[in-house]
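Practice set, problem 2.
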Amino acid sequence: MQLTQLRLTPVLALAVLVGCASGPLHRQGETGDGQANAAARDAMMAACKAANDDPILAPIKGKLLPIGSSGPETFEMLSNLAYATEEERPAIKVYAERLMGCQAGILENARQHLTPMHVALLEGSFSAANALLAQLHNSQMTYGEVNQARARLRNESDAAIARWNSGHHH
């Protein structure tokens, strides 16, 4: 199996920036190890999405995309001028920690099945997205500012990965 034949899809690129892939790296004709990998990946994504059901995240429900969602943000999310409250800070911390756990799983999968450049693009995107959550937690940015920046980051990462894929077919 050649690494260079595996491509990160734009759907995955969008999804991973939020922490989990809702449209995982399915390739046509996956058999054997590919099917086992797809099953493991799907289980990881289901666990990431299940983290949203924790009541501790209730204070920020509807203010940030759910873990595992690839967007888009609602108008309310993009236009929210509020800073995080004392009640919301613990929820943002848990959200970020769970997101980072999902990101670690995605990166582990990417290291096994994608090119080093795809891994580097993912790592850069995750790092930038996590920094935004830290700024939200510390009341340095509003929810709207963070959501707008996360949307821009997803679009830029999507474009970078698409450029990389189109220039490196084999």
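Problem 2, part (b): a different protein.
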Amino acid sequence: MRSKPIAASVLALTAFILIFTPETVNAQGLGFMYDGHTNTSLWPLKVKTFLGFPAANVTDADVDAAMLAAFNAAITDEGPPNVLPEEDMSCNVNFTRSLPVTTFTTGDGDVSDADEISALGWGTDGFLKIVNAVSYCSDRLGSYAGCTEQGNRKWMILAEAPLRSPAGGVLLLHEFGHAANIDHTPGTIDYFSVWRENISADNTHIYDFRSENNPNSWTYCDLLRWDYLDADGPMGSDPLIDNPPGQRLAPSQSIVEPVRALKKAPEHRPIEQLARSFFADTIPVEVADGYGREDLRKLWAMLRDENLNLYHGTILLLIGLISDGSREDTEQLVAYAEQGSTNWHAWSASVIGLGYMANHGSAHAIRSLIRLSARTASGPLTDWSVSALALSGRPEAVQHLQKLSEESQLRSDATSRAVKAHSHLSLALREHARVSANGLKAYYGR
């Protein structure tokens, strides 16, 4: 997901790629190199993962697999049957780990507000930071696959389960693109989006690297390849990786022409296919249009399949958007939330899904969220429940949030956890006002 500089408070998602071209790497194995014959761009990145309880379950092999998937997504020059072949291009941009994956202890594993994004992004070394969950990005509460401040050129954040999924390569490309100053295309859900059909249904190919009207204009590929960044992060000591002299893009060149694939009306895909997707940012509210109870039954069946564990986050968010908030659906989501999961992306999605149901007017969901948010044991489940109440936009939700906020002010506990809980309640009250005034679709709109 995309983010403006923290001062302007906008956040983002991006992704990246792996491969190697030995002749383009310098003696230290670091540095941007460009070979005029092979047109190979290499970005060696320092990768760090959260070390806490539970630790983000990411290995060197997981990161390498995502980088290779990103390379394959970008390098393949092909278009779907309904997109002109000339709208795609082979983009030879490659990523690799500069070192084995190491760890950091900043935060609690869940990125839940702008301060935590800033502390993690700017306060720790490493370019790619992997966390358990991202529940806030781009000034919005939700359940996200990642978040990166646009144009920072020093860091990107991704959640563990999405990174390890088959969509990890495209998500890496998306987040890296934001770090390299690629914005979301105006008027679309995202610039790499299953919903807008410029990503293949199996999350492995991207179709929009060439602009539509002028093949000589700057493309997404140009922006991914021709720039500079600090590959070991803001606290590292290695020099900037720079592009060849004279090749850096001017700020005005960061705007590329949209491609026809992004302008198409979304296709109504089978729910089983949509559930095996990841969305940069969070799932657009309008995705749920046209799906019904039969689709919900299929989603519940998929949720019981542990082989689909990495997709449970998407499945749970879709359930929340499609369901009318019946007692049965609410009880099943509550059971998932209270049981917990090592897949924090899915765990957070189960609670945010309840918020979507409550937004639809479900009294069962509202009552469940009020109970979950009033738990004496603070932690991610409590925080996500507070966020879900904010997303409900319901009057009874704001009354409960105000009560919790007043109670938190009376406590003498000054621990970091208590301070975070009170800060999160203030954030939730602010976001509730936005959702209540404008609706959920506008809240997540561009």
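Answer key, part (b): The first strand starts at residue 2 and ends at 3. Residues 416-438 form the longest helix (23 residues).
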